[in-house]
Design a protein that fits this description.
Elements (H helix, E strand, L loop, with lengths): L1 E5 L2 E5 L12 E4 L8 E4 L6 H6 L12 E8 L5 E8 L3
Antiparallel strand pairs: 1-2, 3-4, 4-5, 5-6
The chain binds zinc ion (ZN).
The site of zinc ion has 9 residues, from loops.
Length: 89
C-alpha cells in the first residue's frame, strides 16, 4: 500500500506496478482542474509507454517534448489514464 499525504489529507492507494515497465507506480497530486485528486503515475523516464508516446501526440509542437505517462485513477477503480508530461530528453 502507498500512502500519500498532502495538506493534512491522507490518501491510501493500492500498490500497482506499471504494466509497461514493471516499476512501482507513485502517487501524484494532480492539478485541481483535472478533478482527479491523487492518482498513481509511472515516473520511470525509461518506460516504453512514455518514450513511445512522444511521437504520438497530435498537434504538438516539435520543440515541446511532451509525452504521456501511464497513470491509474484510484477514484475510478484504477482505470488507466494518460498524463501529459514534459519529456526530459
Ligand atoms: Zn512504466
Amino acid at each position: 500500500m502507498v500512502i500519500h499525504e498532502y495538506a493534512g489529507i491522507v490518501t491510501e492507494l493500492e500498490d500497482h506496478d506499471c504494466p509497461h515497465c514493471g516499476k512501482l507506480m507513485e502517487p501524484w497530486l494532480t492539478p485541481p482542474e483535472t478533478g482527479w485528486g491523487v492518482i498513481l503515475v509511472c515516473s520511470n523516464n525509461g518506460c516504453p509507454f512514455y518514450l513511445d508516446s512522444e511521437t504520438d501526440i497530435e498537434n504538438k509542437r516539435d520543440d515541446s517534448h511532451l509525452g504521456c505517462r501511464f497513470a491509474l485513477d484510484p477514484g475510478n477503480k484504477y482505470k488507466p489514464v494518460n498524463v501529459l508530461a514534459v519529456c526530459p530528453h
